[in-house]
Amino acid sequence: MAGRIEARLQELGITLPTPMAPLANYVPFVQTGDLVVVSGQIPAVDGKVAVTGKVGAGVSVEQAQQAARLCLINVLAQLRVACGGDLDRVQQVVRLGGFIAAPSEFTGHAQVMNGASDLAVAVFGDAGRHARSTVGVPSLPADAAVEVEGMFRIA
Question: β-strands 58-59, 54-55: how paired?
């Protein structure tokens, strides 16, 4: 029987993918005590980056919001593995961190990151409300437009 969070994902039309393997020398997540830290995830679909380039210079804010949402879906796929397949173990989304590839004059980073934050709240309700950092960067791995990492408290 699907758990509460899996049912919510289904209601939202989201199927979590098979988690991507790391692109370099790191692990996809680390658990310490009741905290799970998920490494940054890019907006990949079937192992290919779906949104590349710079936000505000070829990538619209709306496209970047969708990329941030896709990044969080990939974070949740890693988190499900960390939770032994049971996302109902998630008690709190503690923190999300977002990296937005953009030119120096772009200032809409927070609006882009709302794509991930809004999804966290849609999936987890009040437990999805989190602390957050959003940073503009000149480039990201594989020319991804956005990357999102997360920290979660689990049972």
Answer: parallel
**Structure confidence by residue, pLDDT tens digits, 14-40:** 999 999 888 899 999 999 999 999 999
pLDDT per position as a tens digit, 111-142: 999 999 999 999 999 999 999 999 999 999 99
Q: How do 29-32 and 35-41 pair as beta strands?
A: antiparallel
Q: What is the 3-state secondary structure (H, E, C) of the chain?
A: CCCHHHHHHHHCCCCCCCCCCCCCCCCCEEEECCEEEEEEECCEECCEECCECEECEEECHHHHHHHHHHHHHHHHHHHHHHCCCCHHHEEEEEEEEEEEECCCCCCCHHHHHHHHHHHHHHHHHHHHCCEEEEEEECCCHHHECEEEEEEEEEC
Residue where the block lists tokens 């896709």: 70
Q: CB 62: neighbour CB atoms within 10 A?
A: 11
Q: Tell if the pTM clears 0.85, that is, is over it.
A: yes
Which tokens in the block code for residue 55?
Answer: 């936000």
CATH of domain 4-19+28-154: 3.30.1330.40
